[in-house]
Amino acid sequence: xxxxxxxxxxxxxxxxxxxxxxxxxxxxxxxxxxxxxxxxxxxxxxxxxxxxxxxxxxxxxxxxxxxxxxxxxxxxxxxxxxxxxxxxxxxxxxxxxxxxxxxxxxxxxxxxxxxxxxxxxxxxxxxxxxxxxxxxxxxxxxxxxxxxxxxxxxxxxxxxxxxxxxxxxxxxxxxxxxxxxxxxxxxxxxxxxxxxxxxxxxxxxxxxxxxxxxxxxxxxxxxxxxxxxxxxxxxxxxxxxxxxxxxxxxxxxxxxxxxxxxxxxxxxxxxxxxxxxxxxxxxxxxxxxxxxxxxxxxxxxxxxxxxxxxxxxxxx
Length: 316
Ligand code: SF4
Fold this sequence. Notes:
It is a single chain. By secondary structure, the chain is an alpha/beta fold. It has 3 domains: 6-18 and 203-297, 4-hydroxy-3-methylbut-2-enyl diphosphate reductase, catalytic domain (Cobalt-precorrin-4 Transmethylase, domain 1); 20-103, Rossmann fold, CATH 3.40.50.11270; 105-194, Cobalt-precorrin-4 Transmethylase, domain 1 (3-Layer(aba) Sandwich). Helices cover 37% and strands 20% of the residues. It has helices at residues 20-36, 50-59, 85-93, 104-118, 132-138, 152-156, 176-189, 203-215, 231-242, 277-290, and strands spanning 6-12, 40-43, 61-64, 75-78, 97-100, 122-126, 146-149, 166-170, 193-194, 221-225, 246-250, 266-271, 291-297. Helix 7 (176-189) links the parallel strand 8 (166-170) and strand 9 (193-194). It is flat, with a radius of gyration of 21 Å. Iron/sulfur cluster (SF4) binds at residues 19-22, 80, 103, 105-106, 172-173, 202, 204-205, 232, 273. The active site is at residue 133. Keywords: 4Fe-4S, Iron, Iron-sulfur, Isoprene biosynthesis, Metal-binding, Oxidoreductase. It is an enzyme of class 1 (oxidoreductase).
């Protein structure tokens, strides 16, 4: 006789998973493969998710961080995170056919950064070092006009006078609460500083973080489906922890440790903006092998945003 499964509540966050920028980026790759045939080259992982990247590889996409390695004249797609001006120039120099899958909300930050620097302000860029979005945004202005800060300590060590003409922009996928603190500190220290407050943090990041704050009231363990190099997914895990909920970032169901659910009554599940819904299904399948699950979905903001794809791919 099969052992009786313990009942456990599973609460799904809403919204979760793909955002409009990720959907657009994947669609651009799929349509480019259809229109131009394989291979098409992608600068960096199109979005930070191994499942998505592997399924596009199977269809003929080649991922690389090195523009030099791409044959002259080939089709190249810039990932959703955006690229620096230098990467764009290098691609043009090699006469690559460029399709730009940079999220329009990242492009907006690029334009803001350029506008502030053009107006004579030094730029403080708030974000995570080595993240491709930060490399892209900082590489949209002259290197001596921008300084990256990741935390309060780095703000305290900035080399500027208190009345220096400054501006700041932020990465799109940061923690809302942490960024608020950093921005407030900048305003406390500098008298002539301009910036978008928290508006660079995109709607998808905001909505997924709000959903965790709401859900944290009902759960005692949280699973965030997403890649470790996915900034927005990592922030969801951090947020769960900060709400006092044991929180785990998992790429897929194989990374689940069943001990996490010992003595727990309610498991929350969310997915980062680059994690497809199929991964959630696999997680639920695994949980229901060992537990009798009672599924609930929290109400949340309905996201209807859709970004246009490049004109040359529209009629496919
Ligand atoms: S997480 Fe936000 S900025 Fe990044 S691709 Fe999605 S919508 Fe665009």
